[in-house]
Amino acid sequence: MATGQLVPENPAPDNPVSDLPGPDRPVPDRPVPDSPQDAVGELPEGEREALELLERGALTVEGRLVDASNATLYCTVRSHGRQAQCVYKPVAGERPLWDFPHGTLAGREIAAYLVSRAAGWNFVPPTVMRDGPFGPGMCQLWIDLDPSVDLIRLARRTDHPPLREMAVFDAVINNADRKIGHLLPVTGGQLYGCDHGICFAEEYKLRTVLWQWRGEPLPPRAVATLRRLSAGLADGWLAAELAGHLTPAEVAATAARVELLLASRVHPLPPDDWPAVPWPPY
Ligand SMILES: Nc1ncnc2c1ncn2[C@@H]1O[C@H](COP(=O)(O)OP(=O)(O)O)[C@@H](O)[C@H]1O
Ligand SMILES: [Mg+2]
């Protein structure tokens, strides 16, 4: 998967429009950090290389994603003859929100990546926290979409097992922003998702375009996955990973959501006191 996104270094990358001022300081290649203990075991093919490149590579801002609400920057990351495209969201560019503590969105994106990986869902592209030209932020591998997929039709499908699993993932992370444009289907059938900055609130804030399974029994596979997450949260290794990016109460709330899903074995219903669908939905 991620391997397909890593290409040999190209002296003339295809750059999108850049309307940003120059970075305030250069960000050189960084030394190799100690690899974190991988509590999950096998990573998807190419994932480790992608993480290393994202963590250590020299980051060059190519442009700003114009439809993005925060400072969401399209970048190239290069190291030792390898390069890839990525999204870099500096903490300093986060728009203040009334319902999420300021400066925490990048960490929530990492937490979503950790949950997705721990579950074996692998919905979230490789994502790291690192320093960049506009300060610390999250850096996520860019995923090239399958151009033949109609995203609006995809979001409405009821017969798409990965999409249904993504609805369970969103319930676990309490995703308050699953828009149609946050679905990233790639050639070959793998489904990714992006923009997990406003997730992991303690209160129930699920806001999504994927309500088509509300109240229906969870697929057996989702139940097995939730059990794995439950064990990771109870054993502490996943809780410990998440603790680097969320408050103790938010980690506890994540464990409680997993237990609630396992007890009810149904897809959640929309909240009564909260807009259940993002606006705009795309
Ligand atoms: N890792 C990624 N791979 C491919 N496309 C992405 C990725 N991250 C974001 N995008 C695209 O960029 C758009 C804006 O990014 P997003 O994360 O939604 O920013 P914002 O938080 O500002 O809404 C997304 O809707 C999606 O189309
Ligand atoms: Mg978005």
Topology, please?
Elements: E1 7-8, H1 47-56, E2 58-64, E3 73-79, E4 82-90, H2 105-119, E5 127-130, E6 137-141, H3 151-156, H4 161-173, E7 183-185, E8 191-193, H5 220-235, H6 237-243, H7 248-264
Antiparallel strand pairs: 1-4, 2-3, 3-4, 4-6, 5-6, 7-8
Helix pairs in contact: 5-6, 5-7
Shape: globular
Bound molecules: adenosine-5'-diphosphate, magnesium ion
Helix content: 25-40%
Mean pLDDT: 87
Cα(first) to Cα(last) distance is 25 Å
Number of strand elements: 8
Pattern of helices and strands: EHEEEHEEHHEEHHH
Number of helices: 7
- As for the number of domains, it is 2
Strand content: 5-15%
CA-atom Rg in angstroms: 18 Å
Low-pLDDT runs: 1-5, 7-40
Estimated structural class: alpha+beta
Descriptive notes:
This protein has 282 residues and is of the alpha+beta class. It folds into two domains: 2-18 and 29-34 and 44-141, no CATH class; 151-264, no CATH class. The protein is built from seven helices and eight strands, in the order βαβββαββααββααα. The chain has helices spanning 47-56, 105-119, 151-156, 161-173, 220-235, 237-243, 248-264, and strands at 7-8, 58-64, 73-79, 82-90, 127-130, 137-141, 183-185, 191-193. Strands 1, 2, 3, 4, 5 and 6 form a six-stranded antiparallel sheet that branches. Strands 7-8 form a two-stranded antiparallel ribbon. A hairpin with an 8-residue loop joins strand 2 (58-64) and strand 3. It is globular, with a radius of gyration of 18 Å.
